[in-house]
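User:
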Amino acid sequence: MTAENYFALQWHITEQCDQRCKHCYLYSGKNRNFHKGLDLTTLKSILNNFIDFCEKVHVKPSIAVTGGDPLLYHDIWNFLEVLNSKNIPFSILGNPFHLDSSTAKTLKKLGCINYQMSLDGCKETHDDIRKKGSFDATLASVIYLKEANIPSSIMTTVSKLNINEIPELVDIVVTSGFDRFVFARYCPNPDDYGLLPSPEEYKNFLELMWEKYENLKNSDTIFVLKDHLWYLYLYERGLFDISKISNPDDLICDGCGCGTKHMCVLTDGTVYACRRCESPIGKVPEESFYDIFFSKKMDAYRQYDKFEACKKCELKNFCRGCPAVAKCLTGNFYSKDPQCWKVF
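Assistant: Predicted structure:
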C-alpha cells in the first residue's frame, strides 16, 4: 500500500434513530439487542487504535460516521471535535431530521466532507420503507448542505420494491441539486428473500441506469458506479478493457473491498469485515485493528480461490460481485452472487 491509499472505517456510534427502515442491514430481522453506545473516552481509544493501524500499514484514515442517526449520539459534537483535532476528514451517513443551517455549518467547520442520506424510491415508496415525511425532508435538507458548502450524496438501496422507480428518482435527485447519486443492492433478511431482483432483471436495470447516466452526464450530479457488477456490464459492452491493466491474473485491482480496504465498527465495538452482513472478526478497543485485520478470521474474507463462481471469471480481480448478498441469501460468503447473470 502507498501513502496515498485510504482505508475506510464505517463507524456506527449510536443506534438511536428516527427511523427503523425495513431493509436495515444491521438490525432488521436480526433480533439484536440495542446497545446504548460507547462513551467518548472509549471512542477516543478506538480512534487512536485506528490511526495507529493506518500508520502501520501506510494508509490514510477515511471515516464514515453513522448509526442510527449519528447526530443523535449524546456527545456527537465533542466526538467530531476530536476528529477535527486530529485532522481527520469525515463523512456523515445520516438522516435529514436533525439537519438545519446551523448544524450544517458546524459540521463543515469540524471537517465534514460529505453528508449522505437515502432515497429508496419515489415519495410513496420511500416513505413506506422509512418514515412518512422522510422523502420531503430529505429533498428539503439539501439547501442547508449547499449553504455550508458540504457535498451531498443520495444512496438508494435496490430491491423489487423500488427497482422500477429508480430511473425517475435519478431525475428528482438531479433536479434537487444533490452532488452525488449512488445505489447498492439490498442484502436480504430471511423473511424477504423475494425482494431480490433476478439476474436478468438486474442486468436490465443496469442497462436503463447506464442510459440514464449517459443522458445526464453533463448535469452537476456525479453518478458513482459503486456496485461491482458494473464491471461485468461494462466489460460485456466493451467499455472496460482488462488487457490494459498489467498482471491482471496476479493483482487485486478493485471490486469488493472486504478483507482489503475497509472494516466496520458497531456501537458496542464489535468489528465486522463487511458492514452489510454478519461478519464479526474482533472487538475494539480490547483488540487492536492491526491484529484484527491480520487475523485468521479476517483472512477468511481474502480466500479468493474459494469463490465458487468468481474464481473462474476473468474479472475476478476487478469485480467479485457482492459476497454479502450471497451470504445473506445462502449463508455462504463464497457462493455465487445471486444477481450475477454470467453463466459459467
